[in-house]
Amino acid sequence: MMIPACPLADLPRGEAFRLQTDPPVAVFHTEDGEVYAIDDTCTHQDASLADGWLEGCEVECPLHASKFDLRTGGVDAPPARLSVRTHQVLVEDGMIYVKLSDAPPNLPPSCAAARLGGIAATGGVA
Amino acid sequence: MRSVAVVGASLAGLSAARALRAQGYDGRLVIVGEETHRPYDRPPLSKEFLSGRTAESELLLEADGEDLGAQWLLGARAVGLDRADRAVRLADGRTVRADGIVLATGAAARTLQGGHGLGGVHVLRTLDDARALRADLARGGQLVVIGGGFIGAEVASTAHELGLDVTVVEAAPTPLAGPLGTAMGELVSALHADHGVRLLCGVGVQALSGSRGRVTAVLLEDGRSLPADTVVAGVGARPCVEWLEGSGVALDNGVRCDAAGATNIPGVVAVGDCAAWYDPAVGAHRRVEHWTGARERPAAAVTALLSGGAAVPEPPRPPYFWSDQYGVRIQFAGHAAGADSVTIEEGAADDRSFLAVYRQADRPVAVLGVNRTRPFMRWRRQLAAPAGQRIGAP
């Protein structure tokens, strides 16, 4: 199923958009004009890759600096060890669509705990 | 260059080995490590590993099936370097000769004077340290953490989560004043009180007392006595460079390097916690004891090594580190030392969610984020941009 993400015009080059699916998906518009979609949650710990440091076809996790290749989802730098899923992207009539992968996601162990216990995932302190 | 020895098998050494292969070096590669373990990630040792949420296998830094084509000499301590034939002498009598040498021996935890021999007294640096501390924390009871720095604060946070009664003792008037400055050090260390952890500042430790070989109390210089079932000393680290004394490698609180990690000896570079690189931003040599430095900087040092100093690598990004305490994400980038002002620009200190910018004569030089991941990243990128391209706010 193709999910409409956002109009391409609303996503400048070098920026990312978080799609609130479950689990969420990050859509990146690179400086070279390519659009990629990967799982938004770092496989190491619960952090949003849409908030990360985008450079070329690589995003660095905003917390612990793991790097992922947007094209393959592969890990380019630790501490992450597992790849993120990639999702198919289609741009049609100025709209970005994402086709979610059927593969199981590699969610971090802390992610489930954070969802249950509210550990810093929403920026609040209990 | 047909052979390279990397001395040190933690993040900096592994990153150097990876950078060598990534930059096309296909000669002999020997990696020497004092610990017996394969390279592992240290930050979780005070957090998820200590709490039991992360297993040992999850600490491994190498990817499944990763093969650097290296000869690994683990459990082998380097004891000397002969500069003339670039030979590393090991404690077991072996010698490793190489055309190029990467020094990555890291740092060791400072220990308490007078704390030797008592059970229940710990430092935290290695996996073995963390295993031992985890076992003692499982006994519950009262924990006294000596040192209110990041390691001490993270251990306090984890122990509190595990249900221990925790007291942190800091000799300085304000914890974290060095890395964060006084005002922000005070705000961040207020997290202890938020969670019912006692923080005692401005008082030193006189002695430890024990019974039947195990610690029972921490005696403070003001006469107070804190009952303790377990004690952790988080009192800093010293670079592991004693083995280089007399080798001709210039030492100055670590291995003295230029801005790309080259030492005074041709064919020898240094990376990670043992290395004091020249930092043009502060005009001095300094050790950057951060995870990100150990991961990023070896690529530049390897470029310098393989080119014989001819290539000029990209300058390193501003130092970046993080700390996770009591479920709060603390992130810092840049240099606080030279700042003449610090202002909270987003959020509020009382909410424990804010972003603070450090400035030197109106120029941003550092940024602190507390539960502000997204704006922090924008500021961090801004700090890394060449000076001419910076704007006032990202």
Report the C-alpha radius of gyration of chain B, rounded.
Answer: 22 Å
**Distance between the first and last residues' Cα of chain B:** 44 Å
Name the average pLDDT of chain B. 95
> What is the CATH C level class of chain A, in words?
Mainly Beta
Largest sheet of chain A: 6 strands, antiparallel
Described by the principal axes of the CA atoms, the overall outline of chain B is globular
Strand content of chain A: 35-45%
CATH homology superfamily of the largest domain in chain B: FAD/NAD(P)-binding domain
Query: What can be said about the biggest beta sheet of chain B?
Result: 5 strands, parallel
Q: How would you write the strand order of the largest sheet of chain A?
A: 1-10-9-4-3-2
The CATH topology of chain A corresponds to Rieske Iron-sulfur Protein
Low-confidence stretches of chain B: none
**Largest interface, by Cβ-Cβ below 8 angstroms: which chains and how many residues each?**
A-B, 24 and 34 residues
CATH class value of the largest domain in chain B: Alpha Beta
Number of helices of chain A: 1
Query: What value does the Rg of chain A take, in angstroms?
Result: 14 Å
Figure out the total of helices of chain B: 8
N-to-C span of chain A: 38 Å
> According to CATH, what is the topology of the largest domain in chain B?
FAD/NAD(P)-binding domain
Counted up, domains of chain A total 1
Anisotropy-based shape of chain A: globular
Task: Briefly summarize what is shown.
The complex is a heterodimer of chains A (126) and B (394). Chain A has one helix spanning 109-117, and strands spanning 2-7, 15-19, 25-29, 35-39, 53-55, 58-60, 67-69, 75-77, 86-92, 95-99. Chain A has 126 residues and is mainly beta.
